[in-house]
Amino acid sequence: MLNDKKVLYSGMQATGKLTLGNYLGALKNWVTLNEEYECFFSVVDMHSITVRQNPTELRKKARDLLILYIAAGLDPKKNCIYYQSHVSGHAELMWILNCYTYMGELNRMTQFKDKSRKNEDNINAGLFTYPVLMAADILLFQSDVVPVGADQMQHLELTRDIAERFNKLYGDVFTVPEAYIGKTGARIMSLQNPEKKMSKSDENPNGSIYLLDDTDTIIRKFKRAVTDSYSEILYRDEQPGIKNLIDIYSAVTNKTPGEIEKEFDGKGYGEFKLAVGEAVASTLKPLQDRVAELSKDKAYIDSIIKENAEKANYFATKTLRKVQRKVGFPDRIR
Ligand code: TRP
Hints:
Elements: E1 6-12, H1 20-30, E2 37-43, H2 45-48, H3 55-71, E3 79-83, H4 89-98, H5 103-107, H6 110-118, H7 125-140, E4 145-146, H8 153-170, E5 178-179, H9 215-223, H10 240-253, H11 257-263, H12 269-296, H13 298-327
Parallel strand pairs: 1-2, 2-3, 4-5
The protein binds tryptophan (TRP).
């Protein structure tokens, strides 16, 4: 790459509203990665249409997510923040990789099975080959590391298998990516069911704090958070609801669970929940202000979109041409 830095790649879907879990578990921790890595963060709008979308909403959500990346502190001059659909190499590489991926492999993907169950009336081929598009995303940029949650590990494993298979046939074409295991963020659970991850697709909106929820909403949701009847603020597995609240408070205040237990020793759940709600609201407020400010600056955001799409296209094309040559496509005449 440009400067010998290793490449880090990640993407997020613009569907659903991003939650506090996405922020504390991922986004917030991405901000300093560019010091060590050449970073690419895409808004994977092509993945989104595997499930039926309202076009106007998809366009808006994709832009909102891109703005959120920047508002969260990802410097768009130092990180390539772009829309997947603006780089046609994703689709072109995906087609080629489709021909090096087995039906049997895709059939084993647990996310495909889950999503098929949830979208019984629209089990389209895109849903099935979704992981190949993800492999194309990653391999197109010769990525070394990919920060992914546990739910995407199987897709990353498949990506590695495809890359190795291709390299075996054609020589060292692709960097074989690894999961990024740096400082990872907190795993935030649903406020209504602390056994379940906080999710943007949760049907119960009280389970999730959305990044753009206002202060009153945030505090109300924390007040309603499911806890237990121990009446003690202790960081332990028997109290998953309280444990989750401690994790959240810890992530936004940088206090350790031990310090938090001490701070709230002898205090009631009501008081604790309010403190967590207030701490979260004051963490999100500056982010929300920045989103509002950036959203108004159309010219600036457009210039970022243009610039970064060009940058992404440049690197993508390099890989793509090499791959096309390897599989036997004719050279372009210039
Ligand atoms: N499939 C990922 C998810 O739903 C998003 C994604 C698409 C992605 N392409 C990627 C993540 C490439 C990491 C790298 O979370």
